[in-house]
Records
---
Amino acid sequence: MSSRTPFQPGRQQYRRDFLKFLAGSPLLTSFSAFTQEIEETLGERLTNPDQVINVFEMEAVAREKVAPAHFGYLISGVDSDTTLRANREGYTRFQILPRRLVDVSGPTDMSVNVLGAEARSPIFLSPVGSTGGFHSDADVGVARAAAAKNHHMILSTQASSPIEEVIEARDAPIWFQLYSTNRWEYTEALLRRAEAAGCTAVCLTVDLPGGRNTETSAVLAREDDRFCEECHYGEAKPIFDGLDMQGVGLVDSSLTWEVIGRMKEVTDMKVIIKGIEVGADAALAVQYGADGIILSNHGARATDTGRGTIECLPEVISAVNGRIPVIVDGGIRRGTDVYKALALGASAVGIGRPYCWGLGAFGQAGVERVLDLLYRELAITMRGSGTPSIAHITPDYVQDAGYRVPRGTLGRELI
Ligand SMILES: Cc1cc2nc3c(=O)[nH]c(=O)nc-3n(C[C@H](O)[C@H](O)[C@H](O)COP(=O)(O)O)c2cc1C
């Protein structure tokens, strides 16, 4: 059993320090009065998930409840967080072109089937490691929420809960996200365990071959009164149970495109490559036999490219040319964001931080609320644009304005 000290919620000092940090941070260029109010009081006032009206408020509530170091881990980008801003601001470049006098009186059909994964919404849960640091419900709570709302889920190699328990809680197939270790026999063991547990696809994450610089995480870790190493030294996640992790690293920097074929020799699961950002790589993924692509920059936690994932989407869609599905994640916070990604050609989208804010704020119930909020926003956008089903959403419904709106002016947004 871990001897870690439980975090005491509602620590005023932390909040003051965090506000000070934010105010002086390039993360925020300006505070609106509304944003200031959210920062100072919202987390205390919203005590029931149903009172939360958007994912930004959920973030504010989570900030009150999650330990500073863990919250820093959750919100951090890399370097100066340029790409973190780009992931959000990129969405402002694309504008929706709504069509009028279309009969949208029937039920709005948001259901999708991507590589056999059926869900009532195109909003997938991207893999996030160490969710147990946000709430004790952890991945099992996320899976129960995904089951309650019928959203598709991808489980991280770094998950806090055992994969078998997560699949039982989801009560449907999920996908497994793989970090290939520096020992191929371990990678094979992970693939076999995931497949035996009932996963139908493996998403190999390829965007972290050489470390990263998560500065915001480091800054917030200073606000915590515990040392990370006290709890996390030598920690191995449940997927590695039974494997000797001595000297085993989670990164294999030598991987090349042949890895797709090697994985297919070991598993019958679909092989999806997560972390593609340019069209040339998307074409290579198809060429080497990938079954799908997740266009992702790891939630702006890998290379600080300065390019938002939505800005990468048109060239990736063009390179793939309909041969395999493309899922995009990074910065999706509104139903309109989902809509724009679908209109540009994505088969589905992923969210990472938003559902973790829900988890940190209220456990499973908070994740359910986040899924409900985004589902509702997408339904409103679809009806408002004259597109009653996902199949109706085409490139005709979106245009590239060619400029981004800076993030400091985005109203209710915090981060
Ligand atoms: C705290 C945190 C942990 C993450 N852990 C993983 C992981 O273990 N494996 C992975 O492939 N991606 C991981 N990601 C990236 C997500 O899968 C996803 O690409 C990203 O969160 C999407 O961006 P968003 O958070 O802006 O929605 C993580 C992201 C966050 C925020």
Note: The chain is about 40% helix and 10% strand.
---
Amino acid sequence: MTEIGIAGAGRVAQALGRLLRERGEPVASVASRTPAHAAEAARFIGGIEVVSYEDLARRCPRVLIAVSDDALVDVAGRLAHSGMRNGAVLHTCGARGVAAVEELARAGVACGVLHPLQAVNSPQQGVAALPGAAFAISGEGEAAAWARQIVALLDGTPLHIQTGREALYHAAAVMASNYVVALIDASVELLRAAGVPEDEALRVIRPLVETNARNALTLTPERALTGPIERGDADTVALHLAAFRDAAPGTRELYCTLGLRVLDLARRRGLDKAYADRLERCLRNG
Ligand SMILES: NC(=O)c1ccc[n+]([C@@H]2O[C@H](COP(=O)([O-])OP(=O)(O)OC[C@H]3O[C@@H](n4cnc5c(N)ncnc54)[C@H](OP(=O)(O)O)[C@@H]3O)[C@@H](O)[C@H]2O)c1
């Protein structure tokens, strides 16, 4: 079987390495910048060797690169300079297409992308969350076939993004992921200012967050919308804005920016123009 090498020792590298190995794939070696991290990744993935990037290029005809986005070009260059001339490489960066590893493509390696559309905040959580996720995949020949094979092994859904639109796709992923986390943080900040301790705040908003996420995802955002903007209650929005004195700088701005997006949804649902215009003035003037 064609040996697989993992480049990188972070959360995604460890989770994907372990999942592939558990499914019988010949994951053989890991290389990373920090030797201690590579050793930790080898232990987590199970029974694989720690090697240098140079040896990874020489020994493994298939390499999965899962390093920080900013290190991707450099790591691809190191593999190319170490003599990787054929086989296949996939990288896990969602914002960049195959062009990010073009040095390997120029050397004769089939290159592609395998970006999990899932949040991985630890190797263990990644092992639990990646099976069944969607994966943006692209690439040519052997790389494309390998990406499709990995998605099938993980019972995932393949997603094809137009070439050149990777950054838009990734911005969408970031908004559905990290921005949701930031919104929860802003809500907790306001609850703390209203006298609710953080752990209790997280507990009490959980049903609200989960219900709205479920409604938006199943009914569509337009049909899921409730609240003062949807009802046209401009006085309530004005009360909110007046109460923002104690909030961290930026929270009021965030409220107004997102409020305008909520207003768009309310207009699409048929909110009366006079109410909508009054709300818009409130939100634009902060
Ligand atoms: N985490 C997610 O939710 C997620 C989801 C989808 C896709 N991704 C993508 O997966 C890739 C890895 O993300 P991650 O979250 O797993 O990152 P991570 O846990 O922060 O790990 C990053 C890895 O990159 C290596 N690295 C950092 N700077 C480097 C450099 N200058 N030269 C060489 N190696 C360097 C680190 O090596 P050492 O530890 O050895 O120093 C580390 O192993 C990224 O492309 C990311 O966009 C992440």
Note: Residues 8-13, 32-34, 37-38, 66-69, 71, 74-75, 92-94, 115-116, 119-120 surround NAP (CB under 6 Å).
